[in-house]
């Protein structure tokens, strides 16, 4: 059996080598979101659907009446997401008609839950 033919240039042989693995994407962190919204028909599903369409992992969902304002409800979510998804979902919620206020998300993996939040 004849020997395999190698190219004359070492650079050509280097191109045949497998490429180095791509760097891993940044790990997703756990974030707590709070959204105050007008309790209209379908409002909760629209808010949850915006996060679901982005493929975010829901760890906890809670919706209840807002004690500060009887006309609003409060949605509290714990999601596992990357920083880019966090910014995008906050923008999505802020443009929704039903959302009255979107509070700054809290990174639960980096900050204790009792840390003060900026609004």
Helices, strands, pairings?
Layout: H1 10-15, E1 29-38, H2 43-53, E2 57-65, E3 72-81, H3 83-95, E4 99-102, E5 106-107
Antiparallel strand pairs: 1-3, 1-4, 1-5, 2-3
Summarize the structure.
By secondary structure, this protein is of the alpha+beta class. The chain has helices spanning 10-15, 43-53, 83-95; strands at residues 29-38, 57-65, 72-81, 99-102, 106-107.
Question: Could you explain the architecture of this structure?
Answer:
With 119 residues, the protein is of the alpha+beta class. The chain has a domain at 29-107: Alpha-Beta Plaits, CATH 3.30.70. It contains 3 helices and 5 strands; from the N terminus they run αβαββαββ. Strands 1, 2, 3, 4 and 5 form a 5-stranded antiparallel beta sheet that branches.
């Amino acid at each position: 059996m004849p020997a395999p033919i190698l190219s004359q240039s070492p650079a050509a042989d280097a191109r045949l080598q497998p490429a180095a693995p791509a760097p891993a994407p940044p790990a997703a962190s756990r974030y707590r979101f709070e959204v105050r919204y007008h309790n209209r028909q379908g409002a909760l599903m629209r808010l949850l659907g915006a996060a679901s369409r982005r493929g975010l992992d829901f760890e906890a969902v809670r919706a209840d009446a807002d004690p500060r304002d009887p006309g609003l409800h409060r949605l509290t979510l714990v999601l596992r997401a990357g920083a880019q998804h966090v910014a995008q979902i906050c923008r999505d919620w802020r443009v929704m008609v039903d959302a009255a206020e979107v509070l700054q998300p809290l990174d639960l993996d980096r900050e204790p839950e009792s840390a003060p939040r900026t609004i």
